[in-house]
Amino acid sequence: MHVTLCLTHDCTLRCAYCYAGNKHKRAMSRETALQAIHFGIERALLEPKKHLTMGFFGGEPLMCWDFLVWAHGETVRCAKAAGVRTSFTVTTNLTLVDKAKADWLVEHGFSLGLSLDGNADMHNHYRVYPDGSPSHADCVRGLKFLTNRGAKGEIIAVYHPGTVRHLFDSVKYLAENFGFMIALNPDFSAEWEDDDLVLLEAQYRAIGEYYLHRYRKGAPIRINWLDGKIRTHLKGGYSDCDKCTMGSGEIAVAASGNLYPCARLVGNDDDEAILLGNVETGYDEAALRRIVSCRGNRNEACHHCPVRHRCMCWCGCVNYVQTGDIGIVGAFNCFHERLSVEISDSIADTLWTEQNPWFIARFYKSVIKNS
Question: What is the pTM of this model?
Answer without folding.
Answer: 0.94
